[in-house]
Specification:
Layout lengths: L1 E2 L2 H21 L6 E7 L3 H17 L2 E7 L5 H13 L5 E4 L9 H7 L11 H8 L8 H12 L8 E5 L6 H9 L8 E5 L6 H6 L3 E4 L17 E4 L3 E4 L7 E4 L4 H4 L5 E2 L6 H22 L2
Parallel strand pairs: 1-11, 2-3, 2-4, 5-6, 5-7, 7-8, 8-11
Antiparallel strand pairs: 9-10
Bound molecules: guanine (GUN).
Length: 294
């Protein structure tokens, strides 16, 4: 069993981006600028957005964090996105999800200009991804592909079982793994909350991507020997013994599954850091694309 070390690989990618950004400065070119919008006070969202902004600083990107009250109207939020769309200095825009219930995710995502949609959630980018055209790929599945690539894992012909069908992870993951790329070229099954005999599907997986958000859902008996395990889950579970009051749990029961696997991502320090590295790559690309067009 080998750990897929997202912390290490993400650092490698960030170091590369840092050098490339320094080169932009030497050439007198614009550095990438990410604008992150955080609505309300969700603790997990605060942590994620904080990590994204901090990473921008580490690698020499510019960042703007826009914090908004939970009670902000949908109209006001859409106005702010329009301003960011029209701001020539901003290359990438992300609005951290989930949003408060009175705001439509769909309207907000659709309002972001596709050329600045570094989360890859806009339907134009989703459509381009499905058709195999250049697109911004959602950061979590993009990061997972970069991790498989780094470890030179040849996935051709494998049966990948993706558990979860969200627009953020499961669906784009299934498209990437089935693409004619390396890594890729898998036969993909998507399982979800209505899947019958989910355990049987999981046991057939050469690769399992667990992205359903249920702590320790995938247990040892659901995994075949030698499977590659990608754990996307990161749920805060109450733990009075910790100073923070919670522990982070993946969707995979690590102690049971790790001994049976060939490769496995830990939680934390697996997929999470790769998501941030992939977002930074998307932001860098957005900056280059926009500057080469101006
Ligand atoms: N919420 C959970 N994951 C993500 C993500 O990748 N991007 C944004 N914007 N919100 C999220």
């Amino acid at each position: 069993m080998q750990i897929l070390d997202g912390q290490f690989v993400s650092q490698f990618i960030k170091d590369e981006l840092k050098l490339e950004t320094a080169q932009l400065v030497v050439e007198g070119k614009k550095v990438p600028h990410l604008a992150a919008v955080l609505v309300g006070n969700n603790g997990a969202s605060e942590t994620y957005v904080g990590a994204k902004v901090k990473t921008c600083t580490e690698i020499g990107f510019k960042s703007t964090l826009i914090r908004l009250e939970e009670s902000i109207s949908e109209y006001k939020l859409l106005t702010i996105i329009e301003q960011l769309n029209n701001d020539a200095d901003v290359d990438g825009i992300l609005v951290q999800l989930p949003l408060p219930k009175h705001i439509s995710d769909e309207k907000v995502i659709n309002a972001i200009h596709p050329s600045k949609d570094v989360d890859g959630f806009h339907p134009e980018n989703t459509g381009r991804l499905v058709q195999g055209l250049p697109a911004f790929v959602p950061a979590t599945p993009h990061g997972i592909m970069l991790l498989l690539e780094h470890y030179k894992i040849d996935t051709k012909g494998m049966h990948a079982v993706v558990v979860g069908r969200s627009n953020i992870v499961g669906r784009p993951m299934s498209i990437l793994l089935s693409s004619n790329t390396n890594p890729g070229n898998c036969t993909v099954t998507i399982c979800h909350s209505q899947t019958k005999n989910l355990n049987d599907f999981c046991r057939q997986g050469d690769i399992i991507v667990a992205a359903l958000g249920k702590p320790e859902f995938v247990t040892g008996d659901m995994v075949k020997d030698g499977a590659i395990i990608i754990d996307v889950g990161i749920t805060r579970v109450a733990d009075a013994s910790r100073k923070s009051g919670f522990a982070l749990k993946g969707d995979v029961h690590f102690a049971e599954v790790a001994p049976k696997s060939s490769y496995i991502t830990p939680v934390p320090k697996g997929v999470g850091p790769m998501t941030i590295a992939a977002l930074m790559k998307n932001t860098f690309k957005a900056c280059l694309d926009r500057n080469s067009n101006s």
